């Protein structure tokens, strides 16, 4: 399976580029996060998205109330049941997001070199000369010459539907700006981003806490996307808040890096968070265009070496309205994979785009092609060197399992895990074959009732590159030494055969615990 993988520096035969891609049970090792919204919330559409390769569903609370998102979530549950495909749930907070309030949805035409006033919202109507905003402290935060970007939320950044403003003067609470390009703003909600300016608002607002408490906790969300993370303390405070909500103590926090402030504290944020989302839309405004790729490569490398999932956003904006991505976008998706991204996050493309299913399918195919030329050998050596010696026990087992799988040309790695940590460490070394993460449920009690853990851990691997989870039956012994009896291993092998990733005479590397020892073994399958 992986023998067709090329090293990037090897010459690629032109004829091989024209060969049709082979279909696979796992469309790509790189995961796809889809934002569910108006164009992607019916059971049929969500089912099609799951079949196309979506493994995490994102619920963005920047718009829509809890009842609306609950209805979408119920549809997701029905789609999961009908397709028999696992899908995790991510709640995306609003955070200190500045918004222009246009309740009457008046179409606003802004002319280049004209002026417009940004003012705190007190019920005024938006117009081409006055933009009410949801923040009263903007006048204190900006100075003349500062750059402000206003655009339709989740749009493409197209210069005809978003506008650049330059602050000319501050008058009391009002900010007077010069319009730098002609644009038409349509709709009820536009975001406002001030380049490289600190906004004195909490990262986790009272409204966010209310949504998490009333919607996130009852639905036991798998991931919390913490918008506008600027310091490690933001993550610590969010974790403390989640820990008080019993059902969310296991929820993973993904820090969303959206501005220079978050970039400056990236290392400490990475140490505290469970994963990172590179929000390139806002970062592309805060950073000079020529610096964006440098941040992406540096941030993804740091995440890879830390063994924490990294998610890249804003890759195929044009597919919001078009069936095919631009050449630059297709190349951008592939480069995100080659740079080390675990997942691609789709926003407007699936939320209100015309082609949500086709977008997921297209991105998946591009990811799969990029994975074929990923230089696994170089990556493995670089990671081992970075980790250094002596390795921890788990790290040693994980790296050995990947090394063995590559040497014997295994078709799959099967990893038994209860917390998911062992499987994530195997993924850290980027094996070129899928990793079946067999989550062994654990029995726990709160003095009132007994319950099994495992579902959280299984779903949380759905955002990690190359991990494909299955929840084991707790009645089957994980420590079984034979692959032929009724054990979890047999169930995992049968699952691999049924999905087409394991065939007769294939070699399989198994990573499991036996008593107090961790074992890596190689199995050669019979007919």
Automatic annotation (TrEMBL):
Entry's localization field: Cytoplasm, Cytosol
Cofactor field: K(+)
One Pfam family, short name: PK_C
EC nos: 2.7.1.40
Domain Pyruvate kinase barrel: 30-360
GO molecular function, one term: pyruvate kinase activity
GO cellular component: cytosol
Keywords linked to the UniProt accession: ATP-binding, Glycolysis, Kinase, Magnesium, Metal-binding, Nucleotide-binding, Photosynthesis, Potassium, Pyruvate, Transferase
Stored SUPFAM superfamilies: Phosphoenolpyruvate/pyruvate domain (SSF51621), PK beta-barrel domain-like (SSF50800), PK C-terminal domain-like (SSF52935)
Pyruvate kinase C-terminal domain sequence ranges: 395-515
UniProt record, GO biological process: photosynthesis
InterPro entries noted in UniProt: Pyr_Knase, Pyrv/PenolPyrv_kinase-like_dom, Pyrv_kinase-like_dom_sf, Pyrv_Knase-like_insert_dom_sf, Pyrv_Knase_brl, Pyrv_Knase_C, Pyrv_Knase_C_sf, Pyrv_Knase_insert_dom_sf
Pathway assigned to this chain's UniProt record: Carbohydrate degradation; glycolysis; pyruvate from D-glyceraldehyde 3-phosphate: step 5/5
Major enzyme class: transferase
Catalytic activity: pyruvate + ATP = phosphoenolpyruvate + ADP + H(+)
Subunit description: Homotetramer.
Family as reported in the entry's similarity comment: Belongs to the pyruvate kinase family.
Protein name, per record: Pyruvate kinase
Species of origin: Panicum virgatum (Blackwell switchgrass)
